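Good morning,

Attaching, inline, the backbone tokens for the sequence recovery test we're adding to the shared suite. The designed sequence is right after.
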């Protein structure tokens, strides 16, 4: 496929949606996601010689897409200000709430997380990496990964409370104490 424009277009058509679904989970904006997708395909085309045909292509592609998102995060981290924790009210979490919120609404809230929290949350919750793996990938301590995940969940809970107050009423959350976690 090296240098074969037609084969490259075919691969892009086949995997663009998949690449975008991965990059949107890590990016703060649609534009960032597009940059990650473009970088991903560039890496795929430049590294096709390293693909082991005995392995599933989609898994190899997914790894490149996730690593590209991590690289994008690292590259742009220097441009992001110091993250500070706001005083957060933390509610009890219920998976029932997620059934009341659309995937698009959840994605928008995840994209609003600070970059560090978004990265750890996505790697752990969506892509299934362990805290040890995340720590190695991002160059942080395992405890930092756990802390960032906890804080990401708290921020998401706060966003849900603000954006979907009717769900809190439905589950009688206003009557429960906060900061119980």
């Amino acid at each position: 496929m090296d240098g074969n424009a037609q084969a490259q277009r075919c691969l892009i058509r086949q995997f663009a949606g998949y690449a975008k679904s991965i990059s949107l989970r890590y990016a703060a904006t649609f534009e960032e996601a597009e940059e990650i997708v473009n970088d991903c395909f560039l890496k795929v085309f430049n590294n096709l010689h390293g693909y082991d045909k005995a392995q599933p292509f989609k898994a190899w592609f997914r790894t490149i897409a996730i690593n590209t998102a991590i690289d994008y995060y690292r590259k742009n981290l220097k441009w992001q200000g110091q993250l500070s924790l706001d005083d957060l009210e933390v509610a009890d979490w219920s998976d029932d709430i997620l059934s009341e919120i659309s995937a698009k609404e959840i994605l928008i809230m995840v994209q609003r997380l600070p970059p560090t929290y978004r990265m750890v949350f996505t790697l752990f919750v969506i892509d299934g990496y362990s805290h040890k793996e995340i720590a190695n990938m991002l160059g942080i301590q395992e405890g930092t990964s756990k802390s960032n995940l906890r804080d990401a969940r708290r921020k998401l809970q706060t966003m849900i409370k603000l954006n979907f107050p009717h769900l809190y009423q439905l589950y009688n959350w206003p009557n429960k104490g906060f900061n119980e976690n």
